[in-house]
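INFO worker-7 received task bundle
INFO bundle size: 2
INFO processing item 0
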Amino acid sequence: MTTETPRKTTSPATFDQLQRATAALRPPFAVIDLGALRANSERMVARAGGKPIRLASKSLRCRPLIEDVLRTPGYRGILAFTLPEALWLARTTDESLGDILVGYPCADADSLRELAADERAAARIAVMADSVEHLDLITGAAEAAAANGPRVRVCLDLDASLRLLGGRIHLGMRRSPLHDPAAAGALACAVVARPRLRLVGVMSYEGQIAGLADNQPGSPLMRAGVRLMQRLSAQELRIRRAAAVRAVQDVAPLEFVNGGGTGSLEATSSEEAVTELGAGSGLYAPRLFDHYRAFTPHASAYFALTVTRRPAPRHVTVLGGGWIASGPAGADRLPTPVFPPGLRLVGTEGAGEVQTPLVGDAADGLRLGDRVWFRHAKAGELCERVDRLHLVEGDRIVGEAPTYRGEGHAFL
């Protein structure tokens, strides 16, 4: 990350400041407002209630920013999203920044063998498992890598969804088959029975609470339903997670119990069974995090596109823009024009790969070559579209940082 001496402000920049700071840049480009990011970081630490936050790397996808955040008091360790990414981070980041937990199971035998053959990486990285099948795959790779190699650190992924009526109603992500305490204890026994594996942690991510906004505009009935579901789910999970952790600890001691997400830091941190929190999206504060009652983050990530057409009164067209976020297809996954204010996507066209039409009163004040600023819907996915992030303090660029793609990696 190349930077000037930063001002270290925690005040978000205005769009006038962003315009001045980036006047010499050619769109499309992406910007991180460091003042807003720092304000979000401080607020997340406060919301965590004294428990450390393991930084979700997929929410940033920029190694220099990951390292910068992890040097902030209140953050410790990385929650990676693939094993190849974790291996790369283990070799390129300082060990003082903490260990690395791969948040999703790995079925890549080559990467597992690489991990099992690298003593330093194996000491820092933990892989995820939710079934005996995962354990067999990890064990087989470890034995193929080296007969007397290091033990592979393993974390169990406890499903955090709310299941009602004997499982006929499923609310939350279908993330793991490991749901009840007895199953967690049984899998823990299966881990310790394998000499090449070492059980170190339990993780559970309550996406139906942390990743679902509880104050969405629209139907009051829908908002009430979301809040009721989240309240019931949090109550059920608190009891079940504690029981599952006890069942696992009866088999082996644990280094950590990870839970939560940006949207549930307060609630999850209050659980005695949880020792650390996983979060990251709240740093960039993408559009999907605009409607929570518990917190109001500052948008810190933007991208800018160029006006290339004026097809009709109140209409302009920008070059590109089809930067669609993952998840269920819908309007909430589309990028949103935010400056100048008074523009919106055209409902019949949406955001296009080559061009994106926009409509609104502000269009009549735009000319060819002017910029329109957008916000992405989901955190680090913005970095799949650019090779660098321009870092802004107030009205000046103080540096730039390569994204994963800019460093030559695409870990998904």
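INFO item 0 finished
INFO processing item 1
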Amino acid sequence: MNARGRVTILAIVLLIAQVFLAGGSVLAKPLPATSAQLTATPELTQAAQPLTWPTFGRGAVGAVGYDGVLAEHGDQGRVPIASVTKTVTALVVLDKMPIADGEQGPSITLTDADVEIYNQVIAQNGSSARVVVGATLTQRQMLEALMLPSANNYSIMLADWAYGSLDAFLVAANNWLTAKGLTDTYLADSSGLSPKSVSSPANLVEIGKLVLANPVLASVVKEKDAVLPSIGQVSNTNKLLGLNGVIGLKTGTTPEAGACLLFAAEMPVGDSTVTVVGVILGAPNHKVLNESILTLLGTVNSAFHSVTLATPGQEYGSYSTPWGAETSLVSDAQATAIVWQNTPITLTTTARRLTSAEAGENVGTLTITVGEQKTDYPLTTKTALEEPDTAWRMAHPQP
């Protein structure tokens, strides 16, 4: 081969090398990242429903698992609470002398001193239950005598038994209330006959929640009747038991307090059950009070909403690259919330920019906020997001 041929071959080799080097340079350059096209999230906040409060008195409603009071009616200051006081008496006695769920507790033998307490309560025209010297009742039976017929004498007998004296009980009870943050509530006696035993609607809602949290007391307040040694059959003064889901709690009546009811009710909301705790104070009588509470409970039930927040496989956006690769942005979250009234519900989504991804790769976040509670769920690619082939890259060199 002559010199001219060798030069020609060398030139061809150099040209081919330049082409390969240029192609390698094109393939080595980074691809453009693609942003997700996020789908607008739905409006999930529900409309508020009006509650039907009575035209008299004051009150409040809350629910187990929900902080504080959900709605209130009338003045929210301290007022006499009559025999609703006995819920605190029972809780404080059980704080000192707890009973395991399903058990009766220790036996208590009634004495001449208990008969004297009974006579004093009768003289005061207070509610009472019979006392027989030498009769033996369990602690749970004593609580039934306290809470069902609302016997004032059994409130004093339990206080004396647990704390040694009524005065010692009252010190312990008011310290217990302070420790629980129930600073609107004060006990001047164990029964509520004294108008100086006071509380606020908001405090009573919290006290009702504490009653329900105690398995023994929660089971006592839902009993319609009980047969007690030496006393016989006693009936619960709460005539709403079993109506509109009512499961307790405690009645009260004095001239100063009017007719009162601290109540709890289980109500269906979607596939769940919400336990509402409420109170109405200062009714003219219990017939009117009970009718107003049944009406209120119907509107309270309507004010709870079961909201589906997210379902598995739900799409929240997509990716579409310049070279034609596509995938959806999905979540496997299964989320439902029971919300009160128009509690704000917001859904926000974020996703990073991609050039490629495997199927099921975590590339973003779904944030669901209900009221003040925020929960994050991963967003993943539904299918793989493929890189372009060589032909596309050669045809679309990147700067």
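INFO item 1 finished
INFO post-check item 1: The mean pLDDT is 93.
INFO post-check item 1: DSSP finds ten helices and 19 strands in the chain.
INFO worker-7 idle
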